[in-house]
Amino acid sequence: MTLWLTIIAAGVVTYLTRASFIAAGDRVKLPVSVERSLNHVGPAAFAAIAAPALLGGDQFAEFSDDIPRLIAVSVAGLVIWRTRNVPASLVCGMGTLWMILWLS
Amino acid sequence: MASGCRSLRPVTDFSFDRRAFFAGFREVIALAVPGAPFGFVLGVVIADSGLDQLAAWFSSPIVLAGASQLAAIELLAESAGSAVVLVTVAFINSRHVMYSAALRPRFRGFPRWFRAVGPYVLLDQSFALAVSQPDDMSDDERMWHFLGSGAFLWLMWMCSTGAGVLVGDITEPEWQLGFAVPILFGGLMLLSVSNRAGGVAAAIGATVAVAGAGLPQGSGVLLAIVLGVAAGGFTESRTEVVR
Question: The whole model's pTM is what?
Answer without folding.
Answer: 0.91
